Amino acid sequence: QVHLVESGGGLVQTGDFLRLSCAASGRSISRFVMGWFRQVPGKAREFVASISWSGGASDYADSVKGRFTISRDNVKNTVYLQMNSLKPEDTGVYYCAGDFALTDTPRRRGYAYWGQGTQVTVSS
User: Residue 3 in contact with residue 68, Cβ under 8 Å?
Assistant: First the structure.
């Protein structure tokens, strides 16, 4: 069992930056593909970014490409999401997700483990 805890959310202004962290406990995530998702009330949860278990490959939603960067530290059992040039449409609850992976590739769906989420609010 893997327990994921997000942190780093908050209230910022348009153009600001935030760095989200996702700390994993219970077992090593060194063979886990990891992802970030976000959700706003009334809408489905959407994919934001994913990183392979080695960190050698990543994938991003078109809406965040060039502004967000996903990274991981397998020694610290932690995944990060650096969010730059934030926009009001980036507002939402951000969730960390993880799952064991047989191949060292990112993934947009099919995660077994989820965190409780952290709120990000970007004011205009």
Answer: no
pLDDT digits (tens, 9 = 90+) for 1-42: 899 999 999 999 999 999 999 999 999 999 999 999 999 989
d(CA 99, CA 52): 10
Q: Render pLDDT for 44-97 as a digit per residue (tens, 0 to 9).
A: 999 999 999 999 999 999 999 999 999 999 999 999 999 999 999 999 999 999
What is the distance between the alpha carbons of residues 118 and 6, in angstroms, rounded to a whole number?
Answer: 6
Maximum Cα–Cα distance across the chain = 42
Could you identify the residue written with the tokens 């809406």? 63
Close Cβ partners of 115 (under 8 Å, ≥ 6 residues apart): 4, 5, 6, 22, 95, 96, 97
Quick one: which of 64, 65, 75, 73 has its CA closest to 38? 64
The whole-angstrom separation of Cα 12 and Cα 103 is 37
Cα–Cα distance, 4 to 1 (Å, whole number)? 10
